[in-house]
Amino acid sequence: MIKKCLFPAAGYGTRFLPATKSLPKEMLPIITKPLIHYGVEEAMEAGIHNMAIVTGRGKRALEDYFDISYELEHQIKGSSKEPLLKEIRHIQNSCVFTYIRQKEMRGLGDAILKGEPLIGQEPFAVILADDLCVNDNEGVLKQMKKVYNKHQCSIVAVMEVPRNETHKYGIINPIKQNGGIVQIADMVEKPSNETAPSDLAIIGRYILTPDIFDILRSIKAGVNGELQITDALKAQAKEGRVLGYKFEGIRFDCGSIEGFVEATNYMYGKS
User: CA-to-CA distance for 252 and 268, rounded, in angstroms?
Assistant: First the structure.
């Protein structure tokens, strides 16, 4: 069973400066809820209630958000505003939150490795909160969990992207596809249009087997001294232990201003 979900949340969010100078990008609101709130709800829908968050300096707002605010609750108790806290109270009462800090920003792979003490030796999910995924029927992580339960290997969410945008993503080299499940031979981090092996990009949803930690410890850092999760997954893929899943739903890149605005407009239209 997948019991824990890891949220790498230590990045600087420089594309949203100056707002992210003091506000974690994961706390940027889509309407009335911050991005990480949507991610936690997605994990809960998948039956996961243990949330492990990798934070950094200046990220205390994340911890405060999932904690009780006694003064605020006292001030609005019994008022028309109190029902607005219903959803966050449900999360607080349903989930366990643990935190660890990534002292240096050394890439997604390093952030995941830093989460090992919170995860232990068991399979786990990973959600990147600035990838907001929406599906009216069944969340992406719940879909992926069903694939994991059947195949018992690492699963990465993939989607088709325009060829001129492959340099923004990790791109998989697929062997064959059966429905939405793609067998992966290899993957490349941010290739050019000319060198990309396909147009299938990895987005911010993963289910990883615990051996990923040993692999991350053994691989070398890449560009800018960063440890890439793509490189660790390549090692698993060469042994036939990674599948791509073409999920059902819409994904918004809320790490970009354009994607953030699109997500806001979409969610406002649904409200």
Answer: 14
